[in-house]
């Protein structure tokens, strides 16, 4: 049986399942590209930005533009923009609030398309079940006690084929999507753990900057 014949035998339910599968493939491709680029840039950012924090917040903000696709770098830059204004540093408590607020803005970007994938995992088997029901209805409606071996037999087998094929396609789409959704969810959890860990380091770095800034201000006052 040719693929086109196989899909045609699955009935009308096959078309929304195909549409869902195309969406899943497109979303999975975008997510794989996103995570691959993020992993490459993130390693460089960890190696170049964090060890050079002694150069100060102004230098960090300038260099952060090179790593705009890294979530924790964007969080750091936004928090510094809110906490370091006109050469003055706000208290670490204010920086922590700005850091948490900036981190919340990054979460939807990391979980992009996750709702679509989770919905597909639920809907695809139900569409397959719907195809099973419609196929069985078609098969039973074609049954005729007086015409078992005639043309009605083809309609019965066609209904059974529709029921089985739609079920198989629905399960395949759901299983593949479930694997992809679980994989992307693991990427998200790993990134969230890294973000929380780096944010702790950023708070310590900012506290050190703030203390140095306070000492500098005191020395200026004492020399006047």
In short:
The chain is mainly alpha-helical and 224 residues long. Helix content is 81%, strand content 2%.
Give an overview of the whole structure:
This protein is mainly α and 224 residues long. Helix content is 81%, strand content 2%. A two-stranded antiparallel ribbon has the order 1-2. Helix 2 (14-48) runs antiparallel to helix 6 and helix 6 packs antiparallel against helix 7 (151-223). The chain is rod-shaped and about 105 Å long. The model has no long low-confidence stretch (mean pLDDT 83).
Give the helices and strands, then pairings.
Blueprint: H1 3-9, H2 14-48, H3 57-63, H4 71-83, E1 84-85, E2 88-89, H5 92-110, H6 114-141, H7 151-223
Antiparallel strand pairs: 1-2
Helix pairs in contact: 2-6, 2-7, 4-5, 5-7, 6-7
Oligomer: single chain
Q: In percent, how much strand structure appears in the residues?
A: under 5%
Element pattern in H and E: HHHHEEHHH
Number of strands: 2
How many structural domains does the protein architecture include? Answer: 1
Runs with pLDDT <50, length 5+?
none
- What is the rounded Rg? 29 Å
Distance between the termini: 92 Å
Outline type = rod-shaped
Main pleated-sheet profile: 2 strands, antiparallel
Structural class: mainly alpha
Strand order of the largest sheet: 1-2
Helix content: over 70%
Number of helices: 7
Integer average pLDDT: 83
